[in-house]
Amino acid sequence: MNSPALSEPILVLNKNWLPIRISTVRRALVLVWKDLARIIEPNNYALYDFESWADLSVAHGEHCVRTVSMQIKIPEVIVLKHCDHFKQPEVIFSRRNIFKRDKNTCQYCGTRLPTEDLTIDHVLPRSKGGSSSWTNCVVACCQCNSKKGNTLLQNLDMKLIKEPQKPPAPMAFSLPIGRRKKSWEHFVSEAYWNIELKD
Ligand SMILES: [Zn+2]
């Protein structure tokens, strides 16, 4: 099979029907052909394996992949049968990403500052067994950081603006808007797209 249509983007859902990434029609058809995924018809949510999809007739003028013996409609969404393929990349736990998650804002007093005027604070101090992790590290201004020092938060007149959490996977920051297909909107909420475009 060789056709420019094979390079078109396709939405990949995990087995719980949550969007996990964008792939190409070529790669998606291979997964379906290997019986690792099913094609979804976005208008009625019907599921197709490779054979039943290839049996669908292609309307005159409709976009398709041509092989020697057949024409295959271009799928736009697939759902994986298992969880193992296309592992979603994790957000790397790094200083840069903590600043990004907390939007350069002190998580105690809410002041937004340039990176060089901020520090990383361990909510439960390291000296008391606090880990270096997404849920225990926050951005803090120098003033709040020195006020807090090695004291436990509950012993101080200080509160976190919000509980620190691991940020969503990087796909949420990198999907090019021009490659979206209309049919994907059945599977991806507007809120999701909005989050995506902020960064
Ligand atoms: Zn502060």
Order of helices and strands: EEHEEHEEEHEEHHH
* Sequence of strands across the biggest β-sheet: 2-1-7-3-4
* CA-atom Rg in angstroms: 23 Å
Distance between the termini: 37 Å
Reported for the largest beta sheet, the result is: 5 strands, mixed
- Number of beta strands: 9
Mean model confidence by pLDDT: 84
Strand content: 15-25%
Bound ligands, named by name, code or SMILES: zinc ion
**Overall outline:** elongated
Overall structural domain count: 2
Given as residue ranges, the uncertain stretches (5+ residues, pLDDT < 50) are: 194-199
Secondary-structure-based class equals alpha+beta
Helix content: 10-25%
Note the total helix count: 6
Task: Describe this protein's structure.
The chain is an alpha+beta fold. It folds into 2 domains: 85 residues, no CATH class; 61 residues, DNA Binding (I), subunit A, CATH 1.10.30.50. Helices cover 21% and strands 20% of the residues. The protein contains 6 helices and 9 strands, in the order ββαββαβββαββααα. It has a 5-stranded mixed sheet with strand order 2-1-7-3-4. A two-stranded antiparallel ribbon has the order 5-6. A hairpin with a 4-residue loop joins β5 and β6. The chain is elongated and about 75 Å long. The two termini are 37 Å apart. The C terminus is likely disordered. Bound molecules: zinc ion. Zinc ion binds next to β9 and α4.
